[in-house]
Amino acid sequence: MKNRFKLKKLPQLSKLRNEETKLKIKLSVSGKNNPMFGRTHKKSSNIFISATLSKPVYLYRVFEDRIELFDVFSNSVEIAKLMNLHKSTTGRYIKSGKIWIWKSN
Questions:
Q1: pTM higher than 0.70, yes or no?
Q2: Alpha-carbon distance 60 to 68, whole Å?
Q3: Domain extents in the chain
Q4: Interval 18-51: pLDDT, tens
Q5: Given 1, 35, 53, 79, which residue has the most CB atoms within 10 angstroms?
């Protein structure tokens, strides 16, 4: 990320601001001054945002002599529904990088 800022000088990038200035900036873009105030995204926009930000989750079956791809989920929420867990639990486990052994009933 730092490399993209080397081409131009951006004086505001690392500027430290005092609390009074931070409060003025916060008030200038809150409430009715916020460009999205009173608006909502369209359903198609929400689907697009979700698709671009989500990462696929791969579920494998483990046999004694091989591992085989069982299913691919578009995000961790779908696999959380399958496993009857909260989405943050699955997301946290996926981020940890551990192998998850799940036994279905």
A1: no
A2: 6
A3: 56-105
A4: 899 889 989 998 989 888 899 999 999 998 988 8
A5: 79
For the chain, what percentages of helix, strand and coil (3-state, to nearest 5) are there?
45, 10, 45
User: Cα separations (Å) of 69 from 60, 62, 66, 96?
Assistant: 4, 9, 10, 20
Distance of alpha carbon 78 from its chain centroid, rounded? Answer: 14
Beta bridge mates, 58: 72
Task: From 37, 77, 40, select the one nearest 57 (Cα to Cα).
Answer: 77
Residue 73: strand pairing partners: 57
Which among 80, 82, 75 has a CA at the least distance from the CA of 54?
A: 75
